[in-house]
Structure formats: structure tokens, C-alpha cells
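Hi team,

As requested, here is the filled-out complex form for the guanosine-5'-triphosphate run. I kept the field names the same as last time so the parser does not choke. Let me know if anything looks off before we queue the next batch.

— J.
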Amino acid sequence: MTRKKYSCKLVLLGDTSVGKSSIVTRFAKKEFYEFQEPTIGAAFLTAKVKLEEGEITFELWDTAGQERYRTLAPMYYRGARAAIIAYDITQEDSFKGARAWVNDVRHMRGDRCLLVLVGNKCDLQANRKVDKEDVDQFAEKHQLAHIETSAKTGKNIDHLFEMIAREAPRGEEERSRDTALDLQSRAPTSVSNNKGCC
Ligand SMILES: Nc1nc2c(ncn2[C@@H]2O[C@H](COP(=O)(O)OP(=O)(O)OP(=O)(O)O)[C@@H](O)[C@H]2O)c(=O)[nH]1
Ligand SMILES: [Mg+2]
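And here is what came back:
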């Protein structure tokens, strides 16, 4: 039975054209567009994940990777519980970009924001320019999760969001809501106890 409900602010960061919007579209709408327009500023949408222990509503902030929008990014990762930092396995520079995003977000948010490094376009193995082992080493050193995805085929997309739903830190708001729900679910017992003793 689904009992608890959480929300989780999740931001997607990374260089332009790595596939952030495509990852979100694949997850939230189960669709993929060969000609996805570059994002302007940022796009917002929500999507749900159901786990055994409850339902998580993601508030997804899909940021624009073009350089001219970079200064806007802190506005979106401020308050985020999790960040997907995406790179394109066929674009070496995009992994450099991802490393810079990791530094920025860690610097500003410390451990309050779960970071996941996502190597997208893993359907394009023949054009691979980023060595998976190099990224694994970087991820281990910085204590990040690392996963490769394809928004085109859907590989690892649901798994990525389920992992974030499980691992992202919960805020006080959710914890107190949990407590309230736990108390509600125990209410009949305590009421009958009260009756018994008064
Ligand atoms: N082959 C392949 N192409 C992809 C994949 N993901 C995205 N693309 C393509 O890559 C291009 C850029 O994708 P977007 O999702 O717009 O990239 P973005 O990171 O949102 O770009 P900005 O909004 O400019 O930051 C589009 O033409 C997509 O169709 C993938 O997994 N595999
Ligand atoms: Mg986009």
C-alpha cells in the first residue's frame, strides 16, 4: 500500500546538447525526439516514481546548457535535493563541463544535494570519446554515483530516477509529514488506549 508521499526537487545540469531535455522527456513522457530544440533558460515539469515505501513526485528543473545561461544555474540548484550532471559519451569536452558542474554544486551545496553523473547517448558506442573507466575513477574519488544512459533507447532512464528517488536526502518537511502520517496510522490504537485509561 502506498502510504507516504514525498517531493524531490531535482535539477539537470550539463553542457548544451548532452541530452538533458531528452532524458527528462524519455522519463516523464516516454518519448524521444531526434530534433529536440535547445532549452531556453530552463523548463519545469513534474513526474512521479512509485517505490514500495511510497510515491515520490519529482519537481524537475531542466536547465539550458548554452554558455549564456550558465549564470542562471545556481538559481535552479539552490534548494535541490538531487542533481543529474549529464555529459555526452561522444563529446570529450562535455565530461570536462560535467567536472566543472560537480565542483560548482559541491562547493555551494555540499552533501545536501545528491549528485549523479550521467553519461548519456550510450547507444552511440562506436563514437565513444569518453572512457567509462576514467569517469568511474573520477566518480569514486568524488563519491558520486555514475551511470550511462540512452534517452534514445531508454536504457537505464527509469533506473536512474528510481535510484535518485531512493537515495536523495529527505528534508525536514517530508520527515515531519512522515511523522504525522505515522501518528495518523497509529491513531486508532492510541485512541483506544486513551479510552482504556481515562
Ligand atoms: N543518439 C542519441 N541522441 C540523443 C540522446 N539524447 C539526446 N540526443 C539528441 O541530442 C540532441 C540534444 O539533445 P537535448 O536533449 O536537446 O540536449 P540538452 O542537453 O537538453 O541541450 P540544451 O537544452 O541546449 O542544454 C538532440 O538532437 C537529441 O535528439 C541519446 O541518448 N542518443
Ligand atoms: Mg535542453
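Two things worth flagging: The longest strand covers residues 4-14. The chain is about 40% helix and 25% strand.

Thanks,
J.
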